[in-house]
Design brief:
With about 230 residues, the protein is an alpha/beta fold. It contains ten helices and five strands. The chain has a five-stranded parallel beta sheet with strand order 2-1-3-4-5, sandwiched between helices. The protein is elongated and about 60 Å long.
């Protein structure tokens, strides 16, 4: 992953902490250097500081997204900052960032951030029939469970915005959802659910939940169920 931060202390901590968690990390001291590296190298995740001396995270991301030849043009990106109110966090998510990391952060916070790269690299299937059959026993039972599962996902999609403001209720639903995903072979949605559970810790520290990827996986799973 690529980390861009003009504060040497923050850059050192993030680099060392991410390496402890098993990531290969490239460090950039400013936005311009980060943009050049992202154009010429393929990264799995970008971590960009909101306020750098030469530019800001949004400008770097916009320029990268506009460059169709950049090797990391579509790479998931996370914004980091020590000072973010709810409005600013919302604007960053709307600008295309997948999550917001509040500094100072912990190893646990960074584990949640790394989940984006893990999901992308695994390319898990929406529906794994072999996994579902192992859990349900027969094709008939599998299809019956998936019919109920589809209804569960439709209800969750309707309630997701309301649940996002209640960490306890959302955690309960995600725990239940991961069980249903296991019985129905919804491997990708199960991983996204786990990622969202990790981010609940960030939410409790004041950060907004990155629901866009989770909702996309939810809708894709519904579509896959409809196609059967």
């Amino acid at each position: 992953m690529l980390v861009a931060d003009d504060d040497a202390t923050s850059r050192c901590f993030l680099g060392n902490a991410l390496q402890q968690l098993g990531a290969r990390v490239a460090l950039s001291p400013d936005g311009g250097a980060a943009l050049n590296r992202a154009r010429t190298e393929a990264f799995d995740l970008l971590l960009l500081d909101c306020r750098m001396l030469d530019t800001d995270a949004v400008s770097v991301l916009n320029q990268l997204r506009d460059d169709i030849h950049a090797l990391s043009a579509r790479t998931p990106a996370v914004a980091s900052s020590a000072e973010l109110d709810a409005s600013k966090q919302r604007s960053l998510l709307e600008a295309g960032f997948h999550a917001v990391l509040l500094k100072p952060c912990t190893l646990s916070d960074l584990q949640g951030i790394l989940a984006f790269a893990a999901i992308d690299s695994q390319q898990l299937p929406l529906l794994d029939d072999k996994l579902a059959l192992n859990a349900s026993g027969t094709p008939a039972v599998m299809q019956a469970l998936r019919k109920l599962f589809r209804q569960e996902l439709l209800h969750l999609n309707e309630e997701l915005d309301a649940l996002s403001s209640d960490a306890t209720a959302l955690e309960t639903r995600l725990h239940k959802l991961r069980s249903s995903c296991g019985f129905c072979g919804a491997a990708s949605l199960a991983e996204h659910s786990m990622s969202l559970q990790r981010h609940l810790k960030l939410a409790q520290r004041g950060a907004m939940l990155p629901l866009a990827d989770f909702r996309q996986s939810l809708l894709q799973t519904i579509q896959a169920l409809d196609a059967q």
